[in-house]
Design goal:
This protein has helices at about 15-20, 25-30, 35-45, 55-70, 75-85, 95-110, 120-145, 150-160, 195-210, 210-225, 275-295, 295-300, 310-320, 330-335, 340-345, 365-375, 400-405, 420-435, 445, 455-460, 500-505, 510, 530-535, 555-564, and strands at about 165-170, 175, 180-185, 190, 230, 235-240, 245-255, 255-260, 325, 350, 355, 395, 410-415, 415-420, 465-470, 475-480. The chain has about 575 residues and is an alpha+beta fold. The protein is elongated.
Length: about 575
């Protein structure tokens, strides 16, 4: 009305229930005539004694209307019995019992509608009996709560608005006013498991008030604690004096993770934002030093002052924590001079034919830490499996990105993730065998990378060897390199491109295999004809040489030869 003295009143509960029911399609479809609409309004008047107008109550009203607007026009006795039986329970805390009493009172109201039930008197008696039993159980819980000595003491002291006296024993047990209330685990308060409802709330309130000074003291002690009192678990949790106080979180990079202090769930949180910041700052300093010690070889590599090429190589290794496929840094490696290679070797870097890596960071403890840091940065709750703890290869998981395998010290070859040092060892052994002619993928050779001989074929082909067959036996030979001739050189001369053998040229499938290591052979002697007339001199065959030691100071010369 336009009269300013008149105000619209607040919507009543039955009106709100009617609006909520009308929004349901199944209800609106039935309320199409005056009688059905009048019935809907009567159902909407069933009270919700909890006074919260929850979806549970609206759902009950919708089911009531569905039965009453049906052919029978009555509530089915078996359905009513099931609904009432669910409420007829005396277990639970004070809040649970209070909610059940509100439910049964709604059914008491329904039972007094004689036109809705066939035997209304029976349901009235049963609803009243259940409400009486629930009221007795609630009275018992309330009596127990207020008679409980611990709760009574705490409530009285808090009502007096006096400072509560709290203490923490060496085992973490918390006492407030001499009463056991729970345990302090690091900075997290764990209330007594026997406390429920009002008792639990009283304990949490008392703990927050009495432990304030203890928490301040612990934060100060943590800030001054030596590094040896901290620890990092395999799941990324950080401990202090054996208690979990934080966990690693995604940060700016793999070697700069964030810190997330451990919080108490619910209303028992004791750490204020300022205290959490102090904890985070101390743990960040510790984790920085811990990772610097664990990745000292990587830090030493980054400290080399040898020009942009070395810095670029060190930067990419830093992103994968110490190893990556050589193909990703082929240009940087090719640009390295002899002095730079010697400095990198002295810093512990190994430049193999297929990978560039720091052997010191392939030890089990370092690999576990590398996997953990990758999982934290990419928010993997369960770190993916990787070759660890003595296993040097696993079947390749195609769902994981390439960065994962490089970060955990592996290279993907032939459907397997292989630790880079073992991949290099396999390639070296295969080259040695190929120098003596076609070789077989034996179980002994497969043991180099912890796989079956039947699974070694794809790995060898990925390393640059082609499959052949001699007298029904599957053998492998190297794929000959195709080198572009240098300026001024001619095919067939020293430095020119070596033509692939006929069995490679004719087999289209094998000709597409990635170029692998070339096994050089001695000069060929033409058969027939006069050697003197052709100007050819017959040379004695060269003696076979043992495979070079990869850790020899002259290993860098071998790298230079292959780079040509």
């Amino acid at each position: 009305p336009p009269d300013p003295a008149l105000w619209r009143k607040t919507d009543a509960e039955d009106h709100l229930s009617l609006i909520a029911l009308a929004r349901r399609a199944e209800v609106a479809a039935r309320a199409r005539d005056p009688a059905a609409l009048r019935l809907l309004w009567e159902v909407a008047q069933v009270p919700d004694f909890r006074k919260i107008l929850s979806d549970t109550h609206i759902g009950l009203l919708a089911r009531l209307y569905g039965h009453l607007s049906g052919p029978g026009g009555r509530l089915p006795a078996d359905w009513v019995a099931g609904q009432v039986a669910r409420i007829d329970r005396m277990d639970g805390d004070i809040d649970t019992l209070t909610g059940r009493i509100a439910h049964i009172r709604s059914w008491t109201y329904i039972s007094h509608r004689g036109d809705w039930l066939d035997d209304a008197a029976h349901w009235q008696e049963r609803a009243l009996a259940i409400e009486d039993r629930l009221s007795d159980a609630l009275h018992e819980r309330l009596t127990q709560r207020f008679v409980d000595r611990r709760t009574a003491v705490l409530v009285r002291r808090m009502d007096e608005d006096e400072k509560l006296i709290g203490a923490v024993r060496e085992n973490g047990e918390v006492l407030v006013e001499g009463e056991h209330v729970g345990r302090l685990d690091g900075f997290r308060f764990l209330p007594d498991a026997s406390a429920e409802g009002e008792d639990a709330r009283a304990i949490l309130t008392a703990a927050r008030r009495s432990l304030r000074d203890e928490i301040l003291r612990r934060v100060a002690a943590l800030e001054g604690a030596p590094d040896r009192t901290f620890g990092l678990r395999g799941d990324g949790r950080i401990t202090w004096r054996g208690a979990v106080i934080a966990r690693l979180a995604p940060g700016e990079g793999l070697l700069s993770p964030g810190i997330a202090p451990r919080m108490t769930p619910g209303a028992g949180e004791l750490l204020e934002p300022g205290l959490r910041d102090r904890i985070r700052a101390r743990l960040a300093r510790w984790i920085e030093g811990h990772l610097a010690r664990a990745f000292r070889p990587l830090r030493a590599l980054g400290a080399l002052d040898l020009g942009g090429g070395v810095r670029g190589l060190a930067y990419q290794l830093d992103e994968t924590l110490g190893s990556l496929p050589r193909v990703r840094v082929a240009e940087q490696v090719r640009a390295l001079g002899p002095a730079e290679r010697r400095a990198l070797a002295a810093a512990g870097l190994r430049i193999g034919l297929h990978a560039v890596y720091l052997p010191a960071l392939l030890k089990p403890e370092a690999l576990r830490l590398r996997r953990l840091l990758w999982s934290v940065h990419h928010e993997f709750d369960d770190p993916p499996a990787a070759p660890l703890d003595g296993t040097v290869s696993t079947p390749l998981d195609s769902t994981l990105p390439e960065s994962f395998f490089a970060t955990v010290g592996c290279i993907a070859l032939g459907g397997r993730a292989i630790r880079v040092d073992r991949a290099e060892k396999l390639a070296e052994e295969a080259r040695r065998l190929a120098g003596q002619g076609p070789f077989v993928a034996t179980p002994l050779l497969a043991a180099t990378v912890d796989c079956e001989a039947e699974s070694l074929g794809p790995v060898l082909r990925a390393l640059g060897f082609r499959r052949a067959s001699e007298q029904g036996i599957e053998t492998y030979t190297p794929v000959r390199r195709r080198r572009s001739s240098r300026k001024g050189s001619r095919p067939g001369k020293r430095g020119g491109a070596a033509a692939p053998p006929a069995h490679v040229r004719k087999n289209g499938a094998d000709s597409e295999i990635e170029q692998g290591p070339e096994i050089k052979k001695g000069p060929e002697i033409k058969k027939g004809g006069d050697a003197k007339k052709s100007g050819a001199t017959k040379r004695a065959p060269r003696p076979s040489r043992a495979a070079p030691d990869p850790n020899s100071p002259f290993a860098v010369l071998r790298e230079l030869k292959f780079d040509r």
